[in-house]
Amino acid sequence: ERGDLIFVSPIIPLLNQRLD
Questions:
Q1: How many beta carbons lie within 10 A of that of residue 6, not counting itself?
Q2: CA-CA distance, 19 to 12, in Å (whole number)?
Q3: What is the DSSP secondary-structure string of 1-20?
Q4: Distance CA 11, CA 5 (A)
Q5: CA-CA distance, 16 to 2, in Å (whole number)?
Q6: pLDDT 10s digit of each residue in the chain, 20 long?
Q7: Measured between alpha carbons, how far is 20 from 6 in angstroms, rounded to an integer?
């Protein structure tokens, strides 16, 4: 599960930029 968080972590800012 932790591996998922590390993989999603860098994607969160990418999604934020898309929403903006």
A1: 8
A2: 11
A3: -HHHHHHHTTHHHHHHHHH-
A4: 10
A5: 21
A6: 677 777 778 888 888 888 77
A7: 23
Per-residue pLDDT, 9: 81
Question: Could you identify the residue written with the tokens 């932790």?
Answer: 2
How many angstroms from the chain centroid is the CA of residue 15?
7
The residue count for the chain: 20
**What's the Cα-to-Cα distance from 12 to each of 7, 8, rounded to whole Å?**
9, 6
